[in-house]
Amino acid sequence: MLLHALERGPENPSGNHLPVVFIHGLFGRGRNFGFFQRRLAESRRTIALDLRNHGESPHGPMDYPTLADDVYETLNHLGIHSAIIVGHSMGGKTGMMLALRHPEMVAKLLVADIAPGEGGFAQGHDLAAKLAALHFPASLNRAEADALLATVISEPEVRNLMLQNVELGEHPHWQIGINEIAAAMPQIVGWPEIPEGETYDGPTLFVAGQRSHYIAPENYPTMKRLFPHYMLKTIEGAGHWVHAEKPNEFYEILSEFIGDS
């Protein structure tokens, strides 16, 4: 499946810098990485993808091998055969799967606050089903949509994330494939069994939020087995939305990891 891609880059490209590809998390979209994409685009090609069932991309059944193959197909379509991959949460798992299935595509891998294992968006199982069951009235403005979502989402920051996925006005509806997402929640929260010996040997950086529990010591052996050259950095005071909560700290780590590649 070809995904919707938001591209940014310098007006007059120079040098041989690798492109940077951003992959968002559950219920997000590519433009959520705008702060980082705009800064990096001053000197290199950048692409922010909408995964299937998200943003402006098509809908369909989803699991991590499928998501990774979507990214691979889309990047090839864009003429990209090697890139630095940056993924958060579900996007981080997608990036890991891309690196394991198509290592030649991934020059470097940065995974933001997720591990190769069970975990991620712990409330997603129930939330996705409740969102799919919401009944929209004949018309809806933002305040009304916020009040409607508040019946199932208490956290304002999560509601703000979800509001970007509602088409407001007359005949309001979900832009995202909410039913497909709800059906896929076991696969999204889970992680498939990876055969022994299947690894990604390139540079890999896990960035954890200090207040988050999505990367835990019990994950380290699997991280080491699948990504033998991985490093782990923690951003103090950040939760799971590490790049949104501490954008300057995250950008500094990202920029250092990318280097002159």
TrEMBL record:
Highest taxon of source: Bacteria
Record's keyword annotation contains Kinase: no
Stored InterPro entries: AB_hydrolase_1 (IPR000073), AB_hydrolase_fold (IPR029058), Epox_hydrolase-like (IPR000639)
Keyword Lyase among record annotations: no
The AB hydrolase-1 domain, residue ranges: 19-247
Alphabetical UniProt keywords: Hydrolase
Gene Ontology molecular function, alphabetical: carboxylic ester hydrolase activity
Record's protein name: Esterase
Originating organism: Acetobacter aceti NBRC 14818
